[in-house]
Amino acid sequence: MITSLVRKNISIKPWTTFKVGGIVKYFAEPQSIDEIKALHSWTLLQKLPVFILGKGSNVVVSDRGFPGLIIHLGKSFSQWQISGNKIKAQAGCLLNKVVAEAIKTDLSGIELLAGIPGTVGGGTYINAGAYGQELKQIITSVTSLNSRGQVIKRQNHECNFAYRNSIFTQNHEWILEVEMALTLNSGRDLRKIMQKNLKKRKDQQPIELPNAGSMFKRPKNNFAGALIEKAGLKGLQMGKAQVSHKHANFIVNLGGATAQDIWDLSEKVIAKVKTHSSIVLEREVIFLGEF
User: Which of 154, 164, 218, 283 is catalytic?
Assistant: First the structure.
């Protein structure tokens, strides 16, 4: 069964928003929970590192590749349904799709997350948020595959949600499905709010160039972008990777950048900001493999 599920030596570039990275040793797109369980058992047996890929918007894979298995949750895990004020969405469902459908149904509580380039699973994994809204505020339960290969369902208070963190990042669990509870709208124009925030993203973020979203987490009582800008790093370039002129907390691929260019530039930014403000930035983007 595993032989039919797993492909070997796949270029990761087309699967990530940064359009960089080397060859992944094993790659799979499971079509069912049973196939996910089989892949989990196989990786334990083979002692392989694993990464679950959604839209590839928060990850950089080394130019040397990744020596394990990358699982892409695609169309077979992209279903969603709305019942009253409740939304149930599979991990591979695009977060933007859920936001749009919620607004169509006049449900509030998720509209500020419009434009986040990822999936429900990926967003839940890191507790994605924007403009004061976070997924933890609306999630009621999360179904995942734990390290023993068991499918378990946790209620919100069991998920250890924090800023860009959760029990799923801590335990490296595979998220399968998320349930949310929103609020019936009380007369606000949700579509207008969503469009306003999408315009704000377009005006303030370099969405016209390949990137992975915010490169660094927000330091306590500060903003990564502001610290990077104050250190005079906007436009700083290594190879074809550059600190965006539009938003300093974005590193962009000018065309032909390597994963190493991005890593080296992020290292330089961390060092320069530390020298300038004595604050050590922590990456939000996940780097896989050797750098």
Answer: 164
280 phi and psi, to 5 degrees?
A: -95, 115
Q: Give the span between the Cα atoms of 21 and 61, in whole angstroms.
A: 5
* Residue (of 72, 70, 13, 51) closest to 210 by Cα position: 13
- Residue 38's closest CA among 67, 71, 10? 71
pLDDT, average across residues 263-279? 99
Q: List C-alpha distances in Å: 165 to 19, 104, 126, 162, 262.
A: 25, 29, 5, 5, 23
pLDDT of residue 187: 78
Is the CATH number 3.30.465.10 carried by domain 76-190?
yes
CATH 3.40.50.720 correct for 207-288: no
The residue to which tokens 């490296």 are assigned: 172
Catalytic residue list contains 282: no
Q: Give the chain's length.
A: 291
Four-way CATH pick for 2-75: 3.40.1390.20, 3.40.50.2300, 3.30.43.10, 3.40.50.1820? 3.30.43.10
Residue 23's pLDDT is what?
99
Contact 269, 261 (CB under 8 A): no
The full set of domain ranges for the chain reads 2-75, 76-190, 207-288
From the list 108, 166, 214, 266, the catalytic residue is 214
Instruction: Tell me, yes or no, if 218 is annotated catalytic.
Output: no
Is 214 tagged catalytic?
A: yes
Average pLDDT, the chain: 96
